[in-house]
Structure formats: structure tokens, C-alpha cells
């Protein structure tokens, strides 16, 4: 039976054509780590285009929405809106870089 880390490794590997091998291994370690919560890992997947077409489109919609509409989107997709807010309104990018992720 595949573990969560195996699933993450498979998904990252499937899309790794645009990432150097070392970066791919680092992404796998970040996504399998307990040091980052699910919303923070969602940001990594979003920024490195490891999501499917629907989620990619959803993040584009969240980014384009005004505050009122973003609140409406959050009713159905709270994790995605929270991840977007973490990325745009906090020091998450800095924390990723300090941890060694080139983001």
C-alpha cells in the first residue's frame, strides 16, 4: 500500500519535468514534512503547479476576486482561500526561503 509520502512523490514526479532533480527532492521532503500544515503545503503545490486544472483555475479565481467575492468563495473552499491569504498576507514565502525552498 502506498504511503502519503509515496503519493506526494508520485504526483511531484509526474509534474517534475520543469523542476531540476534537486528541487524535486526538496519539494517532496517539504510536502511529506510535519513541519508545514496542510494549507502551507497547498501553497507549495499551487506555486509549483502541482495541482490539477480545477485547483489551478480556482486559485486564479481567488486571486482575481475582490474581498466580498473571496469571502463567498471561502464558504466552499476555505483551505484554498486560507492558503491564498497565507501567501499574500503573511511571511510564508520568507519562511519557505529560510527553510531552503526556492520560492
What does this structure look like?
The chain is mostly helical and 103 residues long. The chain has one domain (4-98). The protein is 72% helix and 0% strand. It has helices at 4-14, 21-32, 38-47, 53-64, 67-76, 78-89, 92-98. Helix 1 runs antiparallel to helix 2 and helix 3 crosses helix 6 (78-89). The radius of gyration is 14 Å and the shape is globular.
State Rg: 14 Å
Give the total of domains. Answer: 1
Oligomer: single chain
Content-based structural category: mainly alpha
> Outline, from the CA principal axes?
globular
Quote the beta fraction: under 5%
What is the helix/strand order? Answer: HHHHHHH
The chain-level mean pLDDT equals 85
Q: How far apart are the termini?
A: 32 Å
Percent helix range: over 70%
Q: Please give the number of β-strands.
A: 0
What is the structure about, briefly put?
By secondary structure, the chain is an all-alpha fold.
Descriptive tags:
103 residues; mainly alpha; globular
Map the helices and strands.
Elements: H1 4-14, H2 21-32, H3 38-47, H4 53-64, H5 67-76, H6 78-89, H7 92-98
Amino acid at each position: 500500500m502506498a504511503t502519503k509520502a509515496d503519493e506526494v512523490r508520485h504526483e511531484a514526479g509526474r509534474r517534475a519535468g520543469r523542476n531540476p532533480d534537486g528541487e524535486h527532492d526538496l519539494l517532496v521532503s517539504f510536502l511529506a514534512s510535519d513541519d508545514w500544515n496542510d494549507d502551507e503545503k497547498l501553497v507549495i503545490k499551487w506555486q509549483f503547479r502541482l495541482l490539477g486544472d480545477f485547483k489551478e483555475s480556482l486559485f486564479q479565481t481567488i486571486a482575481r476576486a475582490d474581498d466580498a467575492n473571496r469571502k463567498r468563495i471561502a464558504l466552499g473552499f476555505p483551505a484554498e482561500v486560507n492558503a491564498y491569504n497565507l501567501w499574500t498576507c503573511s511571511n510564508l514565502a520568507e519562511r519557505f526561503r529560510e527553510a531552503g525552498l526556492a520560492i
